[in-house]
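Sanity check

After download, print the first record. It should look like this:
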Amino acid sequence: MTSPLAISLPLNGVDARRGVDAARRAADLGYTAAWLAEVQGPDAFTQLGALAVTTALDLGVAVVPAQTRTPMVLGMSAVTLSQLSGGRFTLGIGASSELIVDRWAGQPFDKPLTTVRETFEALRPMLRGERTTFEGERVEVHGYRPHATPEPAVPLYLGALNQKSLRMVGELGADGLCLNQMGAQHVPQMLDLVREGAGGTLPEGFGVVARLFCMVVDDVDFGRTIVKHTFGPYIATSVYNRFYRWMGYEEEAQAILDADGDRDAQAAAISDRLVDDIFLIGPAEAVADRIRAFVEAGVTVPVVQPMAADLQQAEGMWQAIAAAYRA
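Expected structure tokens:
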């Protein structure tokens, strides 16, 4: 069982223009889609616009925060990207983290699931080109209608990291699920919770996008060290700390909090077991085998995020992984 590979943008230290050029070269390697993240790199929608008119890749964003753009702005951007790409765009939204939403964007981070739910409900008709009126606790839209009717309607995916949000994906009838930083062994359990929210079954064509952090390297211990120093602060955020606890890494999650911002102590708190479960490190053949395990577990869009120091190294990893995955 295989699924076509997707690339992830942005890349470490790579600006928006070079990222677009890299995506075009990745298409020549056999990658069929590009899924963007939005943290502190290039704006996702601007770069997606460039990709829409310069590549034939399927395009998506997994995810943009629901709190940092209004539903109107999200809907306007999504319909525009659908037009530019000829219907190849998928919108993914999620709750993000307190760092991005509260500290960087100056928006309230309390009740994030309420904001995601209401944003989803307000967006759904917009993505069909319909007029929207919605009044919720956090979100209001009064009579907005997009400038065009996308054909087909823009698919709407949700990012989810805990039991409540996973059930909500199914309950709301999302077109797909966006996953991040989990092991292949966790995917079936996560999909079971989505099915539970949906009443027992998932709709035909339900998509499961997973960003897979990959490092093609012979020295696995070196790769583990890089991961531990990179992801300690990430796991320290409230959203991901709870998520790692739920996946079974309670001791590591607590030790990272106890490190109180000390980067070296955070890294020391991360076990080899955690790294080996979540991150794909090793020779290209071993990384490709791990990707296949995610697909067998239920991932329909494996997104390769190279953990690389620069563009040349990232593209080398894309090339090696693509070749090994096809073998």
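If your output differs, re-run the checksum step. Summary of this record's structure: The radius of gyration is 19 Å.
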